[in-house]
Amino acid sequence: MPRRHKSKFKAHERRRQARGEAQGCEDAQAKAAAEAEPTPSSAAQCEDTTQSVPTTGSSGASQRRRRRAKTAAATSAAATSAAATSAAATSAALSGTKSDEESNNQDEERVSPYEAPFYGERPGEDSLSRKPGLLEQYLLYKYKMKQPILKQDMLKIIGPNYEDRFPEILKKAAERIEIVFAVDLQEIDSTRYDLVSKLKLPNNGRVRAGRGLPKTGLLMNILGMIFMKGNCAAEEDIWKFLGLMRVYPGRKHFIYGEPRKLITKDLVRLQYLEYRQVANSDPPRHEFLWGPNALAETTKMKVLQFLSKVNDTIPTAFPSYYEEALREEEERAQARGATGAGATARVIVPSSVMARSIFPPLLRPKASNPLDKIIQRRSKN
User: Fold this and answer.
1) What's the gap between Cα 82 and its chain centre?
2) Which of 28, 179, 214, 256 sees the fewest Cβ atoms within 10 Å?
3) Compositionally biased, Low complexity: which spans (predicted)?
4) pLDDT tens-digit profile of 85-95?
5) What confidence tens digit (pLDDT) does each residue in 133-188 have?
6) Which of 148, 150, 270 is nearest to 215 (CA)?
7) What pTM did the predictor assign?
8) Residue 180: which residues within 8 A CB-CB, separation 6 or more?
9) H or E stretch including 164?
10) What is the strand order of the sheet 149-150 is part of?
């Protein structure tokens, strides 16, 4: 066969083969589209054969949206779980007597509250009752990511129909966060807000560098337990109490990380707790006291008010603890050299203490110091 005919024949064969491969790719794509489950290897083969332009990435964007939604749902469930367990544990202590975020080095899901709602609607809930939950999760997200909290964003979340109820909705959301994490919502100016830890823990309550949720709530609960145990609590009593909150030594917690290290190392190093060996104990036992920074930054009355909010009651519901807290207030005032009206440090309970929380009301204590009985009964169950 002449050379030019051979060349034409080869060119014809190449075109026919290319058409056949392209048709095969089209058939494979059509089949994958029909099954709604495209195979990555088939798509890659078609791209190599036809040298087509890559897809727009809509499938990848869809996967990212689903992943962000799952992360948001997990964050919501975690916060809800923390709230419930903290309330139950503190309620037990008051009747008788709250994982470290691995976001420092891990890849964070940058989910926007507008892309994936944090708050799930409960049966029978109306629109207005859902708004505080939406703002609550928005506020926690902004705190965790160290991003500014903007009023215009929150107005978008609640919608134009509820703008006139914004102060009421925001107050409820702030109270929910306060009783779990011990952080206060503060207004910076007319357009911005910030969540501020009740104690001056490093990184605004996170203790360690990086992003994450505050550890202040756990510390406030421990300080309250120490107060109610006579200003000195045995280590075993602390772990029994924290066990009611599902916080266990040696087991990583989704907010606090490894609790033993946080409590016996970090908070001791920061001088918010004192951790010492009981004298003449064999085998060695340890106990906790308030550290110098806790004594300087808070009072028994503030701790009692915090625990009362968690349990939807007021400090005067616990007369013996309230009286002791009042005595400390008076002693502090006298130590500051206060005179006249300033020398009497009787505390007026703020109206926010009376606000109802998301938790059921606490039963009033019937005994002056039934803490040990409560913990023993809980541990048996």
Assistant:
1) 7
2) 28
3) 30-45, 71-97
4) 555 554 554 44
5) 999 999 999 999 999 999 999 999 999 999 999 999 999 999 999 999 999 999 99
6) 270
7) 0.63
8) 79, 82, 83, 86, 98, 217
9) none
10) 149-150, 192-197, 183-187
Check if the beta carbon of residue 204 is closer than 8 Å to that of residue 185: no
Contacts of 120 by beta carbon, 8 Å cutoff, 6+ apart: 73, 76
Task: Report the chain (381 residues): mean pLDDT per 10 consecutive residues.
Answer: 57 66 53 45 40 45 57 50 52 44 39 35 64 94 95 94 94 94 95 96 94 95 96 96 93 93 96 95 95 96 94 91 95 77 42 34 36 48 49
What is the distance in angstroms between the CA of the first residue and the CA of the last residue of the chain?
95
Closest CA to 306 of 187, 208, 222: 222
Are 97 and 367 contacting, i.e. CB atoms less than 8 angstroms apart?
A: no
Give me the residues paired with residue 193 across strands. 149, 187
Residue type, 207: V
Q: Where are the alpha helices (DSSP H) in the chain?
A: 3-35, 40-50, 58-96, 127-145, 151-158, 166-181, 216-228, 235-244, 259-261, 267-269, 292-297, 300-310, 319-335, 351-354, 371-380
Query: Could you tell me the two tokens for 350?
Result: 């703020």
Residue 324 token pair:
């002791």
Dist CA 15 CA 361 (whole Å): 80
Q: Is 273 helix (H, G, I), strand (E, B) or coil?
A: strand
Region of 102 please: left (phi>0), alpha (psi -120 to 50) or beta: alpha
Closest CA to 95 of 376, 366, 322: 366
Q: Are 239 and 288 in contact (CB under 8 A)?
A: no
Instruction: Give the span between the Cα atoms of 312 and 357, in whole angstroms.
Output: 6
Q: Return d(Cα 248, Cα 98) in angstroms, integer.
A: 12
* Nearest residue to 245 (alpha-carbon basis) of 219, 227, 269, 264: 219
**Residue 323: left (phi > 0), alpha (psi -120 to 50), or beta?**
alpha
